[in-house]
Amino acid sequence: MPEFKNSLEAPRRMLLACPQRIGDVLLATPLAHSLKCAWPEAQLDMLILRGTAGVLEGNPDIAEIIEVSREAGFAEKFAQLRGLWRRYDLAVSPLPTDRARLACWIAGRKTVGLIEQRTQDRFKRMLLDRWTYFDDLDTHTVSMGLRITDLLGIVPSFAVVPPCANPTQQLALTARLAPFGGKPFAVLHPFPKFRYKMWHDAGWITLAQWLTQRGLNVVLSGGPDAAEHEYAENIVRNMSHGGLGDVLNLAGCLSLGETAELIRRAALFVGPDTATTHIAAATGTPTLALFGPSNPVKWGPWPRDWNSRVSPWSRRGSGQQGNVYLLQGAGDCVPCMLEGCERRPDSGSRCLQELSADAAIAAATKLLA
């Protein structure tokens, strides 16, 4: 709505409030870029949860990152938010949460955000000058965030902005990959944060062996947790790759910016429903995403050149869009959109445990072709 944009009189400071998981922060970067393109002279800061800043590493649109703690007591939270009081001309959020709306109201003179359709709480609506309803089922997370651009009367930018390594980090990564001698390699990211998104060990081992037989070296990526590094080491130990290629375990060794640079240089990336898989899709590298319980319409990786508000993915079925192939596990219940078969994060998901290595290899073959 252009009249609302005009009434802002070119904001000098803007806040994008996204205090949620790391994937939500990454998928809010198209909205951040849209804001920066609309008002290039304005400073754009981002409010996020502590521990999620890595996904914004090297992001050229964000001037300052403000981290808040989910575990902080009331006094600490109040002190954090009090320091933001009316600091910004415009505060927006792509989240329908009380935390995000309250942060916007405290920080911004003008506030724009989302409201859940089921809410009847008038006070929540009063925290926002402009709002639209949040759809948690049939709208992709990127598209949902870009509805804010309609409320502001600005042009949307559809590209997810991945983190970026600095020149020193890029040189260090080149040194790590030197043993490959310039030969092509694939990146496998086998360990998601939650077990219900996890594929099986045998699948990763078989896929890695097949890649080395095709002449590709293999790099394993992962976060800093000891469990991730050990899981990757287990794959290396169980591979019978003698003479077929090299395997490099970099789990826990790289920042997210360095991981994005690693993936940019790869011939192929394979991973489950994680933030790293979303990063891979955003780099443009051929990306194979292994999906089970998650709703692809909302959480499928956003292909680099996808320029439509319509989700790239259907609720059911596998297929390719741009540089991304989404491989969905089978079953009448898929996607259940729940946390595994036992309805908790540490539960397994039968649809992923029964997803065959042959199916993954067939999809990888298409991407490599």
Using only CA atoms, what is the Rg? 21 Å
Distance from N terminus to C terminus (CA atoms, Å) equals: 45 Å
Strand content: 15-25%
Described by the principal axes of the CA atoms, the overall outline is globular
Major sheet characteristics: 7 strands, mixed
Low-confidence stretches: none
* Total number of beta strands: 13
Average residue-wise pLDDT? 92
- Global structural class: alpha/beta
Number of helices: 15
Helix content: 25-40%
Strand order of the largest sheet: 9-8-7-10-11-13-12
Order of helices and strands: HEHHEEHEHEHEHHEHEHEHEHEHEEHH
Structural key phrases:
369 residues, seven-stranded mixed beta sheet, six-stranded parallel beta sheet, 15 helices, 13 strands
Structure, described:
The structure is a single chain. The chain is an alpha/beta fold. 36% of the residues lie in helices and 18% in strands. It contains 15 helices and 13 strands. The strands form two sheets. The protein has a seven-stranded mixed β-sheet with strand order 9-8-7-10-11-13-12, sandwiched between helices. A six-stranded parallel β-sheet has the order 3-2-1-4-5-6. A hairpin with a 2-residue loop joins β12 and β13. The chain is globular, with a radius of gyration of 21 Å. The N and C termini lie far apart (45 Å). The mean pLDDT is 92.
